[in-house]
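Collaborator request, handled under Task 6.
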Amino acid sequence: MCESCKINKEIKPTKEYRLADFFDQWWDVYLQSPKEFVQPEQFKAVNAIRTCRTAALGVDIYACPSCGEVSEVYHSCKNRFCPTCSWRDTVQWASRMKKSMLDMAHRHVVFTLPHSLNPMIKQNQSQLMNGFMRVTADVFRDWMSAKYNMRVGVISVLHTFGEAKNFHPHIHMIVTWGGIDKSTGLLRGLTSDYVNYEFLQQKFRCKFEDELIRLFDEGILEHNYPSRQAFMSFIKRINNKQWVVHLEPSMDIPTKVIRYIGRYSKRACLSEYKITKMEGEYIGFKHKDYKNLDYNNQPIEKIKELHYNEFFPLLLQHVPTPYFRIVRYYGIYATKAHIPQEYLYTGEENEEESYEYNDPRECKTCLVTKEYQHTIVIRRKKEWYYKDSPMNPNLEFAYKRAIA
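Structure tokens returned to the collaborator:
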């Protein structure tokens, strides 16, 4: 089964290791002498991963009113860097998006910045990543408007990591291959997949360089250049670097597009299904090497093994900055844009596309919904009971004290 189908049906391979276990074993040791400064949002992400679906966040107890079967439902941390929570977020996001996409072909587009910009991006991550997302969306909006006189829809997803978890900023984008005609207001698709790659790459480069120069002139950009002349010399040097714009062939049915792009939307930096070993102070994970292809022209899969001193800073550099939205919508997919209902995709999901989820609150024996009993929160080796448990009459007060 292909990876996109696994995402859509939530059928996952066997998971042998939990990232939280490696953090539990070595994070406190690492903090005694960290290799790099640990940002507050990185602390928060690690703590969320370590407590996700544990009694520290709470366990809801449900019981079947007929047979008495008991289920424990652990609370999730809902941190967007958590590998456990990101899977469910991706599936739910894909389900929502299918209902608000135009009934027309879409294309998957990837924009990649030259690696020579990486040091500057790390210094100005929030400003330059905001500009990166806005500029790449404008590339397609302006091009489609000028060439075809139509308004397009754009969904952008920012990633800062490559397969080997190196710093590799790039954007995965879903673009409507067509749009709403600006003159007639009618929905119109494009009949050919041809694009002028050199034109799009040049437009991408020029727009992003204009953004860099604007930030420099306004004194917003953090840099090490002594003068504007030195900065413009740097801009001239990166003109000849790789400004990559890659387009996949168009896909006719929005459901297929969402299944395809879903793997990129809200997934965590490192999937726990790719972890191959945790032995002592070392962790290993699989990754694809796109520079080395096999006889089928597919990337070779390799194993990367790292000491925790190398692994933790490599992974945590990709924790998103606070309040930064890594998924954004532009053009007619923007929140305030109005799309006529008749232009939206209304196809029904078939059996193969249905979302499978086993609800632990359902009793499979009696075919009834289990009733909520109480919530247990274990903090500092103490148990607290919440709501209607007969074990403690002052439950709400006790629970609030426990999480204070």
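The cover message to the collaborator said: "Residues 80-269+318-348 form a domain with the Replication Protein E1; Chain: A, fold (CATH 3.40.1310). The chain has eleven helices and 17 strands. Please let us know whether this matches your experimental observations."
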